[in-house]
Amino acid sequence: MEDYAPSRYKILEKIGEGVHGCVFKALDLHRKCPVAIKKVALKNKFGNISLNTLREIKTLQLSKSEYIINIIDVFPDVIGLSLVLEYMPETLYGKLKNEVSPLSRQQVRKFSLMMLKGIEYLHKLDIIHRDIKPANLLISENEILKIADFGLARLYFPEDEGRLYSPQVSTRWYRAPEILWGSQKYGPPVDMWASGCVIAEMLRGVPLFAGTTDIEQLALVIRTLGTPRLTEWPELTSLPDYNKIRFPNAVGMHWDNLFPSCTYAAEINLVSNLVVYNPKNRLTAEEATKHEYFQR
């Protein structure tokens, strides 16, 4: 932590605001280049040290990957801490909203692979991101995609089967069904479901499941994928919220009908192997990066 930090950076403009803090574009006067400064609270609303802030800093400091946002500096300020990050001019969310120049199929494939390689890197460190979504996928001027916003990231302990994780994570549209049914025993497959939803959104131009409440979100998933079969996902009945609500039986939609503009079968095949009810049956990040979709 450098005590000269505040004078080193000249704040230019506010570029974002999220649950975990505000983000500003600034100029690094030493290196003569733009940076992003994320101001985060050091204490939560109860006056305790914020675990989210500590997790985010620790995860960023641990991660040395070309597909993970790079942390340059950390310094204290009035409300808590400022994280100095490399500046990325765009988000995948912004690109998806740009109707004038929609993503090309080549860009979709390139961004999908970069995202999956970033997730693979995190999972090898036993880190689950828990908030993979287009707004947290940043894109550089030369179209390198990097995963950002680690406020919900957690170390995962695969050997500790009794460990519980909060079900209050990830943005609703990208939230895995086990979390929607209240599971507190989940792992890296929640990121793989989210990544499948992101790839589907890039291919379709619109979100795959855009629910306005958790119940509607689950109803959309069931209507699209069909009612989950207990033979394929026996653990479903043991999830905390499984018996709280009954949904009408659904056959599900054919994947081809969900992606009318896709002519390459491998695109749909990748999504259909990530957006799978049973977490054990989803592709791992490593398997996904080796999918035939990326072999062209």
TrEMBL record:
Molecular function terms, GO-annotated: ATP binding; cyclin-dependent protein serine/threonine kinase activity
Transmembrane segments: none
Record keyword Nucleotide-binding present: yes
GO biological process, one term: cell division
Domain Protein kinase: from-to ranges: 9-294
Residues the entry annotates as binding ATP: 43
SUPFAM superfamilies documented for this protein: Protein kinase-like (PK-like)
Any GO CC annotation of this UniProt entry: cilium
Pfam families according to UniProt: Pkinase
Catalytic activity: L-threonyl-[protein] + ATP = O-phospho-L-threonyl-[protein] + ADP + H(+); L-seryl-[protein] + ATP = O-phospho-L-seryl-[protein] + ADP + H(+)
Annotated InterPro entries: CDK (IPR050108), CDK20-like_STKc (IPR048002), Kinase-like_dom_sf (IPR011009), Prot_kinase_dom (IPR000719), Protein_kinase_ATP_BS (IPR017441), Ser/Thr_kinase_AS (IPR008271)
Top-level division of the source organism's lineage: Eukaryota
Compartment(s) of residence: Cell projection, Cilium; Cytoplasm; Nucleus
Enzyme Commission designation: 2.7.11.22
Keywords: ATP-binding, Cell cycle, Cell division, Cell projection, Cilium, Cytoplasm, Developmental protein, Kinase, Nucleotide-binding, Nucleus, Serine/threonine-protein kinase, Transferase
Family: Belongs to the protein kinase superfamily. CMGC Ser/Thr protein kinase family. CDC2/CDKX subfamily.
PANTHER family in the cross-refs: CELL DIVISION PROTEIN KINASE (PTHR24056), CYCLIN-DEPENDENT KINASE 20 (PTHR24056:SF171)
Record-given protein name: Cyclin-dependent kinase 20
Provenance organism: Musca domestica (House fly)
Record gene name: 101897590
